[in-house]
Amino acid sequence: MTVDALAAILLIPAVSAAILALMPDYRLTATLNVVAALFTFLTALSLFVVEPVSGQYLLVDDLNKVFIVLTTFVGFTTSVFSASYIGHEIETGRLTPAFLRFYHAMYQTLMFAMNLALVANNIGLMWVAVEVATLTTVLMVGIYRTHEALEAAWKYFILGSVGIALALFGTILVYMAARPVIGEGLDAMTWTVLVTRAAAFDPALLNVAFVFLLLGYGTKVGLAPLHAWLPDAHAEGPTPISAVLSGLLLNVALYALLRFKMMLAVSVGTIAPGPLMVVMGLISVIFASLMLYRRRDIKRMFAYSSIEHMGIIVFAFGMGGPLANFAGLLHMTMHSLTKSAIFFAVGHVAQVKGTQKIADIGGLTVTNPVLGWGLMLGVIAIVGLPPLGIFMSEFLVVSSTFARAPWLAAILVLGILIALGGLLMRINLVMFGAPKGVTKPAEASYVPMFTHLALVFMAGVYLPSALVSGFQNVARLLG
Amino acid sequence: MIVLALACVAVLLALSPLAIALAAQPRGSGLIYGASFIISLALCTIALIDLLAPARPVFSLVLPIGLPWLGAHFRIDALSAFFLAVVNFGGAAASLFALGYGRHEEEPARVLPFYPAYLAAMNIVVMAHDAFTFLVAWEFMSLASWALVVSHHRDVENIRAGYVYLLMASFGTLALLLAFGVLAGAGGHYDFDSIRATPLTPLLSGAVLLAALLGAGSKAGLVPLHAWLPLAHPAAPSHVSGLMSGVMTKVAVYGFVRIVFDLLGPPEWWWSIVLLAIGGPSATLGVLYALMQRDIKRVLAYSTIENIGIIFVGLGLALAFKAEGMAWVAALAFTAALLHVLNHAAFKSLLFFGAGSLLNATGERDMEKLGGLIHRMPQTAAAMLIGCVAISALPPFNGFVSEWLTFQAILLSPQLPSWGLKLIIPAVGGLLALAAALAAACFVKLYGISFLGRARSAAASEAKEVDAFSQVTLFALAAFCLVAGTLPGLFIDALAPVAKTMVGNSMPQQAGLQWLTIVPIAESRSSYNGLLLFAFVLLSGSIAALAIHRLASDRFRRAPAWDCGFPDPDPVIQYTASSFSQPIRRVFGSTIFAAREIGEMPPPGSNVPARFVVDMHDPIWEALYAPIGKAIGFATERINVLQFLTIRRYLTLVFVALIVLLVVLAL
Amino acid sequence: MRMIHDLVSQGAEMLLVLLLAPLLTGFVRKVKARLLRRQGPPLLQPYRDLVRLLRKDVVLAVNASWLFRAIPYIIFAGTWVAASLVPTFGSGLMFSWSADLIAIIALLGSARFFLALAGMDVGTAFGGIGSSREVMIASLAEPAILITVFAVAMIAGSTQLSTIAEFMGSSAVGLRVSLGMALVALIIVAIAENGRIPVDNPATHLELTMVHEAMVLEYSGRHLALIDLSSQLKLLLYLSMIACIFIPWGAAAPQATILSLAVGALTYMVKLTACALALAVFETSIAKMRVFRIPEFLGAALMLALLATLLRFVSGSL
Amino acid sequence: MQHSLEFDVAHLLAGSLVLASFMMLYQDRLYSLLNVYALHAMVLALSVAWQALVQNAPHLYVTAFIALTFKAIIIPVALHRIIVRLGIHREIETAVGVGLTMMAGIGLVALSMVVMLRVTPGADALAREDLAFALSVVLLGLLIMVTRRNAVSQVVGFMSLENGLVLAATGAKGMPLVVEISVAFSVLIAFIVIGIFLFRIRERFDSVDIQALDRFRGERR
Question: Please, do chains D and C touch (3+ CB pairs < 8 Å)?
């Protein structure tokens, strides 16, 4: 029974992917896509009820439970959004039904891959899963087959596969480090074993391994200076994919990093992975926030803001300690919800206005009040203004850092401020002023967007104690 | 008590989603403003009961929201009670005024939802008793007011104002966040009680002081952090402008007092120097800026900066005397500051509402298009006159009392041991005196140009008197100014518990003194009796009038004004706002604003119009804000190339990163 | 009994200043005339002028508002009350505690505030020019006098005029640098505030130079009478203020006998005469200065006053 | 003695793989680059086979076989075809001069040695040496990608990088299922996806030169 829940999370997407690949009618596929995502989400929820025993290949613990539920939930809402979104794409003829079949199949494959990466108990398996996810997204980014889309996909692909290679090398090194202690065979690649025995591993080897893993998976996380694929992939791919990328894939890669960080935390004599993460985090924050100012494409702008927030999260985990880790987890959750909500809104905006160029969009709160204020709320949330969740996590990150390393905190605060300035400067004229561009009524469901925003708002005001205790356990695990 | 207060706040919060629905209805604004008026009154009474109750208990409460392991702490101690009273006094006035004024709003959907939320946020700030709740409310307050600032969003200037405002507000919040980060220490104890319990090293507490000054000062509009204020306050609808200038700046003062006087522990003597060195110039510069303006709401906004400066001078004096252990003088200075908080809330709201009435009646904010409105709108004119006299710190109105008390505190500075303070404080006193005189000039200008003389535009000549609600509000506030000016003793006594808790002593009881005089220290030293003065002036004035009309003549006839033989002059020959301030501009502006007058007189016979241009510079903007903007622009432009590299170059970045890390390992 | 006595003395005071003010002005005019080897108007001329003006009709400009008609009374009342709060021949005034030096100055400030408004009410260029110059002068004169007050008050340890007078009368003072500076500053301010030469010329109607006269140009009849009377009161006020701060000798102490009151009155007259003579001599011996020289003139006062406050530590330690 | 023989042969093969990488660095013609790559793959196959022998792990023979067939034969041939079809001019314009590249390569090898030799020799020397060589092959592969402008040559560089990974993987004794993974992925990446992409790119642009791609950068519309 218990194993079923775990297996189901993987099987449902896999099977439905296979089915969707064969089904001709796109409306049907869209609905089926939603249904599949919903079931996956429900099974994921069931993990809280009955804790499955983790086998040699799959495992469930507090850490990945959080990630799984988040992933499946956002996956579900995004599928709802994409159902309404893709229909419009068909009408405008940007996509052909043939491609759409492929699209939905790929969507489920992506879900499968990400879930696999999250539940994998084997570093090799996890690596495979992350790479499958990457490749599927590469294909989906290129789906519009415009110059820019192909170029973005190509960039994503080249950089991504280099990341793949580096990550694999790191994985091999970890095995090499584990083998003398644990002995040959699967055990030397199994999380549950690795974490317990990591103390005895060769620190020097682990260091090299972590460098490669940080760069390999860091490429997926989109840390500067490995970020280059991220903005274009977000800007040129279909918006649901942008939402999934920002909301989920980055998290999955981050999850992988966290796993390895846990392992290194156990081992003595390794250089603490903390400083590396802190430095890369800060670089990403400052860099991304400066990049916000000159953006002309609204989706690309929010992509950069994703880089910034990933920087904050990595910074928090790099600082370590229960409070900072808690903040990091919270920030990660809030960011996935908010950013995907923003991308939903942006998708609708792009469809209403027929463009993604900031200069061509204006007075949105006049022409489409609901959409406009929805997006505004999302932006307010993402720049970290109360009473929304991100304010809380940023409060925790900064104040917990300040006690230990004031200067780092000051730099972080500076970055946050710069980012706020950039985003608001760009978004102001999109929202207010005289309406610009075509003004069509948006025919789309705002349910996903406002669901996310409502959750974010709730988290900003009141965190359910169950969630808190769960996060606190995880924070303790992360050390 | 506090439960009641929080319930009221909750209702306010509930109003704003309701307002979204009601905004469409014609009656919507009436309902919302009416409701917020009633609630504000209720909160105000609660606060007053708390403040005036003899041997008042301290009410506190912890709600299970906010930070999970912390909860949201709320408390109404004397300080909170006083500021709660101020906030809701202003809130009630604004709501009442808006009952009439709000009807003219063209896009109520952009104002109504945020208004109650704004009120609620300010209330929460003064009641919050832990860092997180405080900051959430603080920033939420900025957010709501930002939404109100950009409510008239068609004007790009307003959007820019909102942008600068929100940026500065977040800057302030982050500064406060750092302050609390230090206060909370490594343990992360965010509730105020445990913050009080943990002492700090002098260095750290100095850092906290500066952070608090940055945070609260940027919200209060201290020079040089004031840049957003004259942009944002006029941009909002006038009742909101009144709230922002009259009340929100006071909430900022509250934040500062709470951190520095309450949480930070015993002060060092040099803190006061920082405050005085910022407060005095703020006062003078603020009013000088105000004198140079033409936009009536902008004049008022700048004069807010002046009054905040006066308040911070008072606080600085209080710190100085507190640090030197002269609690009784500290109490005097502190009371003066708080009294000025209340007074400024009153007359600044009054003036902003008056400006709003002008805006409604004429559609003009530019004084040089107004004039002669005393004939068209006599009630508004009368109320505004009182406001102008009061804010110019002239007896017998309330502005004078708080300034007089501040002067009394200044006159005690020779008793301070430290020579720095001995020498600085009189100089600051001079700055305050200068500010007061300039304020008088500024408001002579404001009133004379916009209400007196002859109408300078068609709009002004057809203006109609405003509705009843607005008039009631204006006169109520005017009456308050008079009462607070003539019976200051009552207010001083009401402030005693606050001073007691904050500086450890309070001013002598004033209630018992004969003729309701106020005596800060000793009667032989100084005393003031606004009531008697007012009575004398009234008496002698009416006696004179009576006598003259009885014994001499009381007849008059109308005739055209003396025109030097050029009959029927055009209204444009009247003095305008800018020509009125020209002498002062010549005296002060040339140095401070680098003001230059370029006049081009065509040669005799040519019919080219003569040109006269005044060009002025804002030194602070050009010295502080512009460079930052430039720096950001430069950095972004430089770094932006990273968007346009070739894939190979990006690969190179990755490669280099890898190499660097490996080298780090190898070393 | 005491109450009655005080009330009487207070009432006497008020009447005295009211009656004395025009005489003082007349005296100054007379002396100036004689210094210029002119006959000059008789001493009582100001009274005659006032009475004549009071009898005349008022001619109001067409668009003069109610404020315009109310202002003369406000100004008069304010100035009169202020003047009657300054100790003249006796320092023990009943209501002197109801307003200290700062309050008195502020009261004059309100009077000026309304006068400036009056200048702008009719909406002629004259009024505007007068008001704008008036507020410019005031913006420098008020801080100057306030800082002077600081200096004096810090020395005397009080802002209460009667207390100051007693302190100054006592031997505790001694000769102080800062007091001298304060005196000079006060005199400069007094000249400026009363619109005397070289700051302003009460006797001219030349548009380019006039300040006070430009503001009141539209006034006539009883209004003009009141305004003239209040400016005369103002002159008296300043002179007696200088007298009671810097030459307090002879003034009657509180609860004094009738005799000492008489002595006080006599000395007071002497003081006034002396001051008036000095003023007249000064005015005749100097020329009116350009409007934009006035800031420098008053700036000097400001600096002197500030120096006085700072130097009081030095001389205090002497 | 037996051990030392194993060691020496493995050492030799790995070393020659690094040498091959250097040869690739040196090439500036596309055809010759492909040929050298084929050689590279063969050496890899040999070393894998040797590992299979010494670790007597038969599944490694499969790996070796795959390496031989796919990497050493099929892919070079396919790429030849592509080049012909695209009609790319023979020359590769290297971004950085060959001499400089060689210097950099030597530096990289030195770096990888230093990094790897810090590892405690507690693990068997074989793994250690292998890793050092593998690391340098990986780095050299990256270097090729960085210094070449032409897409095909970048792909080649990438595949040599993959070879380094395979070398490392096979060097790691008894590492389960990773050989398959790595090979499968290398083939997948090198062949299918790049094939698709080249095809699409061919469809869109006239050359595979990435600068043509770089012309269309999102913000520059």
Answer: no
